[in-house]
Amino acid sequence: MIDLGLIDEWNPAPGRMVTWVAAPESVARAAEAPVHPAPPSHQQEEYLRLANRHAGADFRYSGLCLVTVELPMGDLDRAAMTRSINAFLLRHDTFRTWFAIDPDGAIRRHLVDADVVDFVPVDYGEIDDAEAIREHVQKTTPGPFQWDCFSFGAIEHGESTTVYLAVDHLHTDGLGQYLSCSDLAYLYAREAWNVGDMLEPAASYLGYCTAERAHTAAMTLTSSGVRKWLELIRGNDGELPSFPLELGKRSDGYNRSAHRTITLFAEADARRFEKACRASDAEFVGGIFAAAALAEAELTGGDYYFGMTPISTRTSAAERASVGWYVALVPVAFPIATTSFARAVAVAQRAYENGIRLAPTSFHRVLELLPADTDLDVRPGWATPMISFVDARDFAGHEFFDLVRGGIYANRAASEEVLVWINRMPSETTLSVIYPDTPVAHDSVDRYIHAMRSVFTAVAEQSR
Length: 464
Description:
Blueprint: E1 2-6, E2 15-22, H1 24-30, E3 35-36, H2 42-53, E4 64-71, H3 78-91, E5 97-101, E6 107-111, E7 119-127, H4 130-139, E8 150-156, E9 161-168, H5 174-193, H6 205-217, H7 224-234, E10 257-266, H8 267-279, H9 284-300, E11 304-312, E12 327-335, H10 341-356, H11 363-369, E13 386-391, E14 405-410, E15 419-424, E16 428-436, H12 439-462
Parallel strand pairs: 1-14, 13-15
Antiparallel strand pairs: 2-7, 2-8, 3-6, 4-9, 4-14, 5-6, 8-9, 10-16, 11-12, 15-16
Helix pairs in contact: 3-5, 8-12, 9-10, 9-12
């Protein structure tokens, strides 16, 4: 069972806590690392600038991703785990880099030598309060402008052990979080039990960032992908899409995050829903956007759907084995000219496929190309709603998801829009939402979830 939510909702059992953090000498030497020519990815640069603009917030503004799993073993080999953690950090070069913003505003990457990386265990003894454990994890994991913005830990409960990885969003995406778990499991098996190395070679994230920038540097306002993005935004009155209902956001301060997760389907109904999609030459993901569009039409009476979805930009086997932030945000836009799911899903599928074609054209780069007097109303720090779909059944080892207790959590950071994750697991499909924690938003999100679930349920029922 995999839980999804905010770190505030993680309730680890009490136990003896060990945390792996960078040794003081390692931190000092890393601070002296020279500048490396590989730029941040477009996604990383926007993230860092946003974090820097809000450095004065009285809470962690940047994203912290926490992955946990409870193992049915109480005899964790700490020396083997120490070797596994350091091997993991050396396997993925994103973890050997840190960033600084120069006085001229340029963001520079620094690369830490491999022999500098040294994470060591610190024993904190027995902790019997889940809130204290949560607070400890967040306090011992620095923010994105420090090299060691990731930490590891174990809570030994006697007959079982909860292992966790906490990493700033700067270095990871959804697939990266899964890869981190599987890599650490394989590395620990190698170090503790001399199991052969089963990991495929991982690509360099620095190489990916360099290639991305080389590709987008050649773009101009006349490039086909740029022109398509601008056509979509201008067709939306010069604005990015926004959530279709009121959110009641405060304008005099930060809006913190709230979370809800519901079950959409048991797997039998998910298969029925997928069957209905395929009957219209579409896939499950097309059905998701058709359901979203029909729900919005019901709630607002609108006749046009414009949403965003994150797409993995990994293109090779080595990149699919690499931890990093390999994501592009792409549009899904189409007219809502029918209340028939069969017709809507066919249109939604084509719109999704058209959106994927824009993945190499980073929207961040599109905004860089706009003249100062642009007619588009897109401000620094822009936010837009998104719907993400992950079919976790594609992951190696997915057959164990229902046998272990794990979790994927985010910190309660700032929230300006509604972010939806639909995750298809082996036994069920869930819908999770992160949104501004306001009374108005709670009501609006409730209405939105109810409308979407009604579409999903009706389609599955009709396919029985």
